[in-house]
Design a protein that fits this description.
alpha/beta; six-stranded mixed beta sheet; 7 helices; globular
């Protein structure tokens, strides 16, 4: 059974949640109109990296951004996913959430690896839970940006049964080749689909490269956006994962007794 994935590669207004919510609302409607069934938004798509103002603009887990994602998922009968700035008491997190077509939250994953080059460790707490969730009947996983540089973390999710890896990101333009090469490697070594959404545009400190990607379990790029705002829609069949994993049985041939 195939699924139409819609990646919303958008610019993000720095520190302006209301403007970004309105922007995303229009993009989601357009994605649905073009057949999107699973909608993926960029990392911290309501705020960008305005970390110093998180005490003003971050939200609790039932805040207005979550209400909007839930309502849009229900209204359009789609899955809506992306990461947002989360406040939990006095702590702040970069949190990947997924809402299904019934409006139920399927995932709350707090970014495990904080990116020092963009000062995350100065403002945010790191998460300690995995990002595996169910997409219909298919187990998949969600991670955030810098997490993909840790292959052991991605493999941990695959050992829990994930057949696809959803990545939400604000990946800077100077390292676009790293972005592409790392994602292709994660797809090949885990024999899974990789669905990765990056933002475009700039904030006061960084320019972002776009090039959102969908990669199949052979490592073939089956969809790629450019460097401007774009909605990338790609049809995938997650059942292909099983056949490829049987053909080259890397999960059966692992030697965890040797891995230290």
């Amino acid at each position: 059974m195939t699924t139409n994935l819609a990646i919303i590669q958008m610019d993000i207004a720095f520190g302006n949640p209301e403007l970004n919510r309105n922007h995303a609302r229009a993009h989601i409607k357009e994605a649905v109109d073009h057949g999107g069934e699973v909608i993926l938004l960029p990392e911290m798509w309501t705020t960008g990296y305005d970390l110093g103002r998180f005490d003003e603009i971050a939200e609790e887990i039932d805040g207005p951004t979550h209400q909007l994602m839930m309502e849009l998922a229900q209204h359009h009968k789609v899955t809506v996913a992306g990461s947002v700035a989360e406040r939990d008491g006095e702590d702040f997190y970069n949190t990947f959430v997924v809402y299904d077509e019934s409006g139920q939250r399927r995932l709350k994953y707090r970014k495990a690896h904080l990116f020092r080059l963009m000062d995350e460790e100065k403002f945010l707490n790191s998460g300690d839970q995995q990002g595996v969730f169910q997409l219909g009947n298919t187990p998949v996983a969600g991670v955030i940006c810098y997490d993909i540089r840790f292959p052991e973390w991605i493999r941990t999710h695959m050992l829990e049964g994930a057949r696809g890896l959803f990545v939400t990101a604000e990946w800077p333009k100077p390292r676009t080749e790293h972005w592409r090469n790392i994602l292709i490697s994660r797809a090949i070594e885990n024999q899974c689909f990789v669905i990765a959404c990056n933002r475009v545009g700039a904030d006061p400190n960084n320019e972002f490269g776009g090039h959102s990607l969908v990669i199949d379990p052979w490592g073939t790029v089956v969809g790629e956006a450019g460097e401007e705002e774009e909605i990338l829609i790609v049809e995938v069949d997650f059942s292909r994962v099983e056949a490829i994993r049987e053909q080259i049985p890397i999960f059966q041939d692992r030697r965890p007794d040797l891995y230290k």
